[in-house]
Design a protein that fits this description.
It comes from Equus caballus. 40% of the residues lie in helices and 24% in strands. It is an alpha+beta fold.
Length: 200
Amino acid sequence: MLLLLLLLFKGLPCHGASTVLKPEAWVSKGPSPGPGHLMLVCHVSGFHPKPVWVMWMRGEQEQPGTQRGDVLPNADGTWYLRVTLDVTSGEAAGLTCRVKHSSLGGHDIIIHWDGNSILLILICLTVIVILVMLVVVDLRFKKQSSNQNILYPHVPNPAFSTRTNTRDPRSSGHPLCLAQDLWIKSKFLKNWKTSLKRLW
């Protein structure tokens, strides 16, 4: 067990006191705290050493409602911090998240909150999902149509068949029609012979 712990500890990167790593920062929208309100979240990660200053600002004015979380360790030995601000929807425009750290050499990181760009990204993602669903439905419909054509080949239209079969039976050479013609001819000949005998 001790050997396993030593191996795990050895596998983790260790940043000494002299190691300086610049932070990465980004903003996002958290769960809505209530109707008409926004939860703005500023994420700061990958920095070393641990001390860092993060604040939501409007111009040069610090926002008193800023809530700072705990500085948590990352798996690579760097640090992570999450800072939030609860504002009304109309107050979000113009806010920025400012980050100060010893690795930045006095050049603060300033991330502007732009709710419109986030909304645009969400709209684009929604449109892409809808288009993908439409393509999938269209492909499935075409596949089903193809399978039906294979299982059920083309059947002639009954109306068309009826029209093509309504010819005069006498011209079709049907046996029943031929027998009827012979009977009529024999009857005619018999009547003709009877008429001749009466004349003689």
